[in-house]
Amino acid sequence: MCYTTPNTNPNWHAFLTGLPKCEHHVHLEGCLEAPLIFTLASKNNISLPDPSTHPAYESVATLTARYGHFTSLDDFLFFYFIGMTVLKEKSDFAELAWSYFSKAAQDGVQHAEVFFDPQVHMDRGVSYRVIVDGYVEGCKRAERELGISTRLIMCFLKHLPLESARGLYDVALREGDLDADLNGGGNPVIHGLGASSSEVGPPKDLFRDIYLSAKEKGINLTSHAGEEGDPSYIAAALNMGSTRIDHGIRLIEDANLMERVVKEEVMLTVCPVSNMQLRCVSSVSEVPIRKFLDAGVKFSINSDDPAYFGAYILQCYCAVQDAFGLSLQEWKVIAENGVQGSWIGEERKRELLGMIEEHVKKFEGVL
Question: Mind telling me the catalytic residues?
Fold first, then answer.
């Protein structure tokens, strides 16, 4: 999928390209493009599904083409979890992280808070240390070579047994990787916890005991909610201690809950192209961007699983502009809210806000 230049004014494309961005909802495993899957499968002697029964795996081209036709979240997750099996060595995880950061930098990302899913890797024999150290290496390289500040968010998977998540949480604490970040004031290896995978089906408060424990320790918390599930999933996540909501588009179905989200300054990490690709909406224009802006709901725009959905963050920004024709000041609000909702220190926030202000001024009177 490729989006054209927003509207008819070429200055919009220049503005959106250069607008300093914070990305808060991207899964590193969701950045495994088909060529890298085949390359790592060959390198690590990993067998991909037999093309005679799964024709999508006949070639890079057929797999890439299949990604454009997901019928549901579960259909997507089938391919997502198969793709993860090619990651084996520390260098594989580092390479995957770098492949995302290098593309993000081209799209104007200045700060990225990235999800990763250790449970599936650990279940197939990859050590926790290999996974985390590989991703940390990719993050440090991005900071060193691209100037992108980074944060790692460890996700628990809702379709797996609760004991699996508890075990992972205990390992992260024991290894000393998970500690209070205090919005950038600490120095943990893992800067927050998230919950993803199948939304409808598992209990809404599946990770309640883990989240309450983490909240007491001052650990940042977010959770996927309100994508396929109704607003009660968002309320459950907030009641467990989440201070951000990933997706959250069904918030508009509950006016009282939306008032709470505005009052508590909860940021939603909205993924418009992902919502369309997974059939939560039929078009990006159905994502409640305008309603959120009008109601004062803070949100950022994100790519989610760009290798699978065919749109990295700039294309997501362009898709939103195509659908809603936002103003320069509205984009400034979105960008600034993304900074304020980031898990970084005040000094870095001021730096990013200054970059946004400077960029917007260049286009005043032109857009």
Answer: 227
